[in-house]
């Protein structure tokens, strides 16, 4: 439930890992520990719906986590690289009714162009730009700033794309996400029906327009998942090796969604035919 962090790859010093604590996400025992330790932490960082485990969508856990961190004076940071703008115009924060102190976003905010973004309360963001001040008078930024820079920070092309994306989202309103979410849910329902008919112990799940095989509800090993990516390539669908799903967008019409459904379902049935997924009574995999 609670472990000390270790460097994930060479180049990350052990001294960095010593300052990090890992907790089971969505586990009530994690909240019990944080109630005792949050005052010693600078921040708690969560991916509100984890890209590697999207079937876990712990609304009450997040609400309690917000209350604990707020009481302890500890920052709550949401990694919204996947959930931002996808489930709702306000991301996972709006969907779950939980306001983080800081949130991070990625290329979805730039319409697919390389872009990353940090958003948060003004008292925190003041440490990036110094805070509010007026041009042409004696005022000056009053907050002590940290170092924040990058070669492509505020790149004009990415900012233009971000502005266009924001205007499109504002114009479309929540109906854009609502429609995509319903379409994705319907795709997942079809895929699960096909898996059940084939007797395969594989279940799909979704969060907004993101869909994926739910590993905690399926009996499929990493080798079969990697081979599925290759089979999908032969059908014109590209996933990173080991990925278990993808994202629908407004560019996907009925024909494309049918193709996605057939490619995933046929690929999984092919793997079962090769003995890499064992057909079984799905009830035994729960």
Automatic annotation (TrEMBL):
Any one Gene Ontology molecular-function term assigned to this protein's record: glutamate-1-semialdehyde 2,1-aminomutase activity
Required cofactor(s): pyridoxal 5'-phosphate
Record-listed E.C. numbers: 5.4.3.8
Enzyme class: isomerase
Transmembrane segments: none
Record key words, sorted: Isomerase, Pyridoxal phosphate
PANTHER family reported for this sequence: GLUTAMATE-1-SEMIALDEHYDE 2,1-AMINOMUTASE (PTHR43713), GLUTAMATE-1-SEMIALDEHYDE 2,1-AMINOMUTASE 1, CHLOROPLASTIC-RELATED (PTHR43713:SF3)
Protein name in UniProt: Glutamate-1-semialdehyde 2,1-aminomutase
Natural source organism: Methylobrevis pamukkalensis
